[in-house]
Each structure stands twice: as structure tokens, then as C-alpha cells.
Amino acid sequence: xxxxxxxxxxxxxxxxxxxxxxxxxxxxxxxxxxxxxxxxxxxxxxxxxxxxxxxxxxxxxxxxxxxxxxxxxxxxxxxxxxxxxxxxxxxxxxxxxxxxxxxxxxxxxxxxxxxxxxxxxxxxxxxxxxxxxxxxxxxxxxxxxxxxxxxxxxxxxxxxxxxxxxxxxxxxxxxxxxxxxxxxxxxxxxxxxxxxxxxxxxxxxxxxxxxxxxxxxxxxxxxxxxxxxxxxxxxxxxxxxxxxxxxxxxxxxxxxxxxxxxxxxxxxxxxxxxxxxxxxxxxxxxxxxxxxxxxxxxxxxxxxxxxxxxxxxxxxxxxxxxxxxxxxxxxxxxxxxxxxxxxxxxxxxxxxxxxxxxxxxxxxxxxxxxxxxxxxxxxxxxxxxxxxxxxxxxxxxxxxxxxxxxxxxxxxxxxxxxxxxxxxxxxxxxxxxxxxxxxxxxxxxxxxxxxxxxxxxxxxxxxxxxxxxxxxxxxxxxxxxxxxxxxxxxxxxxxxxxxxxxxxxxxxxxxxxxxxxxxxxxxxxxxxxxxxxxxxxxxxxxxxxxxxxxxxxxxxxxxxxxxxxxxxxxxxxxxxxxxxxxxxxxxxxxxxxxxxxxxxxxxxxxxxxxxxxxxxxxx
Length: 619
Description:
Blueprint: H1 2-28, H2 54-60, H3 62-85, H4 92-106, H5 110-121, H6 125-152, H7 155-162, H8 167-175, H9 180-203, H10 215-223, H11 231-255, E1 293-302, E2 309-319, E3 324-328, H12 335-342, E4 351-353, E5 356-359, E6 362-363, H13 369-379, E7 380-383, H14 387-390, H15 397-408, H16 413-426, H17 443-455, E8 461-465, H18 473-490, E9 493-498, H19 501-507, E10 510-515, E11 518-524, H20 528-531, H21 535-542, E12 593-596, E13 599-601, H22 613-618
Parallel strand pairs: 3-9, 3-10, 7-8, 8-9
Antiparallel strand pairs: 1-2, 1-4, 1-5, 5-6, 10-11, 11-13, 12-13
């Protein structure tokens, strides 16, 4: 198929270039003695009503026919793709208006629109070309809108938004490359359709006008004697069929190789700044001295068909430089939503309220949108649970690692590439990975690339949202050891989110236990195994298996299910599942109170320290 498409397209290109030069004179030379002749040795396809050779005219008409068709499809595809892709980066109101416009335009048949506009623009080559381009815009817009919708909700596009990238850059780097294959196929096949439609307009007298001619006009001229001499009419028809088939084959060939290929990274030249160098401070002075992150009374509200829910409410936490804090809890407890609210990456429609949200001393609520995006992009790094979706599959690793520093620090390509190579060395990956795409790397390598991407901006805070969940035990240990080394070398604070209580207890310094959207206990990690006081925390610890567990007995579990966020009940959210519940627990929500200087618990009847975790879980 590739060879056939190449040969057919090459023949069309040659005819378009040399046709007017070789056969142009005989195509325009009238001969009164050879009017309306049939096929002969001198005229293989006969002559027209002025004695001009039909074959010469068909060959000469290759150039105007192809140029007009390609111009129409490129204009229509360009406008339609931009219109449809814009729905992935526009705001809610503009996206709704754009989608309504596309739906309205699709209500009219494209061919009728082209005929109507050809009359409005005026009969002629330019009018027909513009009419076909305008008629093709809605179809390309709808296709692009549908494809872009699949990219709009990806993690890498959300990360690009928080980096502060403009809408044009979002389109060019993060939306269009990921939908290029079907768009390229549609554009090439539409070239054949456009050629047929343009010939149809010329056939109806709305396209190319005499003394000019294209295949459609030649088809019209030969149709009058198709029953007596079919070849003069079949010649331009065969030319149209040949060209349309060539474009169709081209689309099929390119469809398998349409992934965008960026340029290979240049050889690093400048030496990057040392990793221990101080970062410039952003924003105003902190409300409390020495805090990297300060969150007080954070609430998140999400819209649902059955009404709004509040999966996160009343969350408060603080991190100091170089501190590793673990955030644990069952799935659905609000851990990831808390992290996304801090990073301003919540899904559309979510509402956030808080009394305080400061990052590196700057009050995020007091910053303008662009300043807030820039501050988040340079002060915070997010390591997602699934790097396969967080990394853009259409871009090389080099492009994704250097984008932030080029956008926010004004670094040159060479300088940014050098810093990216150094970041990869920091996470034990060779610089050759810069030339790879995410699908060419293993799961552990992709997670290391995610960490390296965060290190590029030298953040003060790293939020690791279950970064080891999809990895095997060996790679888990490597990732946690790597994060510990980064914390030691850069003094960055780390918020480590996980449901693996054993891993968090070993890796972190302090633990935040979350249940039903709120913090129920905070304590040092070394007291997690035997010093937890909340029944939920003790049950989580008891559910972790060890080598001494009796294999003949089932593993301890927490009976029941978390509360339904649509119908929150008064009192303690853990009350229906708690082995220590009493009547007071069902009516009053316990506050998070101090048990010691570094230990707080939200429970009316905390578990005594001497209680055995398995006994608590089983009771």
C-alpha cells in the first residue's frame, strides 16, 4: 500500500509540475479540422468542440484541480481543528458556546452549504475553494472536539495547566499531538473528497470558469456526447478517481505513523545550578514562621447528579522544610482530593474553601490567577499514582522535563536539557532516557521520570500521591529511598499519601490518619504500631499482615463500610464501625484534641495505650 500510494502521488506531482509545460500548448490550440473527433492515434481520447486534444487538457488540468482541492481541505481542516480543539482549553462558558456553534453548523448538509456559499462568493475558482473550505469546517470541528474530550481530563494536561502554560501552547503540545493520527487520516482522505466536490461544483458551473478549466469542467463538456463517444467524458472522470484513490491510500499509510516526533535533545552544554542552591522566595511572609505548607480548615465540595457532596471537610495540616509526613486512610477517605485541592488540580465544578492555604509563605488566595499558577508550578511538585497517564505519551522525556524551567525561568533549550540530564542522574537514570517516550520505559523508570520532572523546578514541597501503589516491592523501596535522599539533599518537605500503613510507618516521620474526609489522628510514626489511640488507626495497623501471623486465621479487617457522603449522619463518622462506640458518639462529632505535644486524636473514647491492636479490631 505504501509503495502504491507513493507511486500514485509521485505521478500526480509530476503531472502537476510538467503538465502545463509539456501539453499546455496543444491543450489550448484549437483545430477547426478536428472538431469533436473520436479517439485516434493523434488524439487518444478525442477532441472537444474546438478541436483541442482532450488528453492534453486532462493532463494540463491536473495542477489547478489538485491545488484548489488541497487549498480547500487545508483551510477547512485548519479552521475546524482549531475550533474543535479549543473546547479542551477554553473556560466553561466559552466551551459551551463553541460546542453549540459546532452543533448548529452540523445541522446543514456540507454539499448544500458549499453550493450556497459558492453562489454567495461568486462563481469561480476562488469562490468554489472558499465555499468548500467553509463547508468542511463543521465536520473537522466535531471530530476534533470528540478526540480532544479524551485528552481534556488527563493528568498531564492538568499538570500543564498548573504550570501556567498558555492556551496556544496547551493546544500545540498537549492536545493536538495526542489526537494527530485520526486527524491526519481524516485530512488526507478529505483531500480526495474535496477534489470530487470541487469537480462537482465546476461540473455545475459554479467552479472554474472558462477560459480556465479543471477536471470537473472537462467532465461537463464531454457529457453531452457520452453515448456516442464515451472516452472524452471518461478521461476526466478517471483522473478524478485516480487522484481520490491516491489520497485515500496516503491516509491509510500515514495513519500508522502519525505520532508526533519531537527533535532529539541537544547535547548538554552549560552546567546546571547546584541542587543545594537556595530557591527564590515567592509571595509574602508566612503566617507562621518556618512552614513550607500551612492548611487550615480545608473543605472540598463536588457536584453530583444527586446533589453536592463534601468529601473533604475541616482538614488542617502543616509541613516544615525537610519533613516527611504520611497521609493514610482507606480508599475514598479524601487523601487524593486533599492533595489536589492544595495543588489547585481539582476537577471542573469542584468548590474549595479554606481559612488558610499558604505555600512557601505565600497566601494562595491573595495571589492573582497567573501568579498563583506560577507559584504552584515552581514551589510544588506533584508525583501522581499512575505515571503512564501523567506523562504525555506524544512527547519525549526531554520535552516534558524541560518545559517548566523554560516556561517559568526563561532557561534556554541547552541549559534546560543539561538540568534535565542532571535530574535524571539524581534519580539513577542515564541521560539517554531523555530521547525516550514514556511507553518505552518500565513502570519504575516512569515514576523516576515523574520525580525528576518535579525536581526540575527545585520545589519546596513534594506531594507524592500513592507513588508506589502500582510498583513491586523492590521498586517501592527504591522510590522511597530516593525520596528520602531528595529530602536530605534539598530540604524539600514531602507529603506522602498512601493506604499502605506499614510503608508509611517506616518511611515517614509523622502520620496523619484520614477517615471520611477529615483527620482523625496525628501522631509520630514511631508510635504508630503501639501508640495509636483512635480505634480506626488501631484497626488499620492490625490489618497489616506480618510473618508471625497465624496462617490458619483470616486477616483482621474493619467491618462495615465508610459513610455515604450523600447522606452524612451526625456524630462521629466512624461510629457505625467502631468497637468502642457509645450513645454519645452517634450524636456529637469529636474534635481533634491534643493528647500530647505531638499527638492529637478525634475520639470521645480513645483506645488505652496498653490495648492490643488485634483485640481492638476483633472486638
